[in-house]
Amino acid sequence: MKAAIFVQAGLPLAIEDRPIPRPGPHQALIRVHRCGICGSDLHMTSGSPFDMPCGTAPGHEYAGEVVEVGPDAAPIRVGDRVTALPMSACGDCPACRADMPLHCTALRSMAGGYGEYTLIDTRKAIRLPDTLTYADGALVEPLASALRGVRRMGPLGPESRVAILGAGAIGASAAFWARRLGAGHVAMIARSRRNEGLAAAMGADGFLTVNDDLPRQLEQMLGGAPDIVIEGAGSSGAIQQSINLVGNGGTVLSLGGCIQPDPIMPAIAMFKDIRLQFSVAYGLADFIQCVNALDAGALEPRALVGETISLAALPARFEAMRSGSHAAKVMVDPTII
Ligand SMILES: [Zn+2]
Ligand SMILES: [Zn+2]
Fold this sequence. Notes:
This protein is an alpha/beta fold. Helix content is 26%, strand content 23%.
C-alpha cells in the first residue's frame, strides 16, 4: 500500500510502499477514505520536542471502511463504515476509566490516516450512520477535541458570553459547540476577516479582528465582557490576549497548543481572578456525542471542509501549509489514484 511517511524534520513527507498491516486482537484494518490535515500534524513533524517517530505515517482524523478484523473485534465487522479515536488504550486504568485514553500508561498511537490502509482499535471505533459521509466521519476527531474543552466550561446558558480567539478549525469547532451547548452569545476574533463566513456558519453571532477596537467592540457585541475566552489560535501571545479580554472571574480555555514558550503576565490573571484551563483530546463519549450531533442534522461543521486532495498531492500541500496560510480544512482521500 501507499502511505505518506514522515522521514525526518526538514524533509517533505515521502510516498512509500508499505506492507498492509494485519489486525491483531481488538483491531480492524480500514481502507482510509478521508483523513483531515491537522495543525498538530504540522507541529509534530517540525523538529520540535513533540515530533512523532520518524518512519511512520501521520494522520489522526480519519474515516474508512473496515476490510479485515482481528480476533475479538465485535461488534465492528467487515464492511462497516467507521471513524475511530486514533489511539489504543488498556481500557482499565484510572485514565481509561475516566474516558481519557490519551493518558493511559499503555497508550499506543493509531495514527496512519495518511495511507491507503490503517489499523484501528475496535473498542475505540464508532460506526457511521447512513446519514454521514466519510468526510463527516473525518471531522469527528477535531470536533471531539473542541467538545471536550467546551464541556469543561460547565453548563452554558442564554446569559453565557463566549469569545473565541482564532477562526481556524479548532476555534470554529469551539464556536459550534458553544452555540450547540447553549451559549447565548458567541463572538469570534481572528487576524483577518477571511473566515468570517465560516464563523457565521458554525454559529458565531459576531466576528471581530484583532485590529478592531477590542475589548470595547467585543463587549458591545456580547452584551458585556466575556465569561469565557477560548484560545484556539496556538500562536505566541494568544493566551495573554485571552486573559486581557476575559471578564473578571471568568475562564480562559486554551485549546491552541502553542509549541513555543509563551509568557503571560500572571498579575493580570490574578487581579481578574480568572481560571486558566487547558484541554487535550477526548474520549469515546466525545466521539459518540459528535457523531450523534451530526446524525441529528447539525451539519454546520461541513463548512470546515475545503479541498480534498490525493495522497500523491499530500507532501507538497503539507509543506505549503507550514507557511501558515490555510483557511478551511484540507482532507486527503487516499482512494484517489
Ligand atoms: Zn487533529
Ligand atoms: Zn488505560
